[in-house]
Amino acid sequence: MIKRVLVVIFLFAVAYQIWILIHIWWWINHHPHSSAFMNERLEVIHEDKPEAELKYKWVDYDKISTHLKRAVIASEDAKFTMHEGFDWEGIEKAYEKNLKKGKIVAGGSTISQQLAKNLFLSSKRTPWRKGQEVIITMMLEKMMTKRRIFEIYLNVIEWGNGVFGAEAAARHYFKTSARGLDKQQSAKLAAMIPNPRFYDKHRMTRYLNKRTRTIQARMRFAEVP
Prior knowledge:
By secondary structure, the protein is mostly helical. It has a single domain, classed as Biosynthetic peptidoglycan transglycosylase-like (Penicillin binding protein transpeptidase fold, Orthogonal Bundle). Helices cover 62% and strands 3% of the residues. The protein has helices at residues 2-27, 36-48, 66-76, 88-101, 111-120, 127-143, 146-156, 166-174, 183-192, 196-201, 206-218; strands spanning 55-56, 158-160, 163-164. Strand 2 (158-160) and strand 3 (163-164) form a beta hairpin. Helix 9 crosses helix 11. The longest helix has 26 residues, at 2-27. The termini are far apart.
């Protein structure tokens, strides 16, 4: 009986990986219409507003401001074009910082890891989710170009309460398009990524303004795919 259960679990796990693999293969040339994070957030919003819709509109890579691309890389993953999905030095630094503080205050996740989580996984932190995130990250890096990974990332990440992607964020905060974002606007959007719903409500905090200036100073060193 136990052996049969283990076989079923194994087959289910394999089928799930194949399901993910097929989706990644499809998204090489087709755009995702939603993500796990979008679906999860929409369920929460529908509890209070059943008719509500997410703010989301796909835009192609060349229609997104280069300032935003540089700002996001400067903020989230300075070695994005150089690593193969994992920034081991960044992970080590984050671990040491969290150990020193006695709680999680820093993350070492790369853009590829964040995309894996956003597309397929929940926001809950569990050992299973982290392990699956590693597998999906490796799939993304093997099957997609850095440019495609970054294009999807910029289009699906959360940027506010019900706000997903660069185009929706640009219009939500600055009444402009993703292409029209300037340096300061781009740096501010990048600074909001770690806690977008909080900064949607608190847009002028001292930390956010300081972080925006720091990112803006680093943008010229950022290498975009």
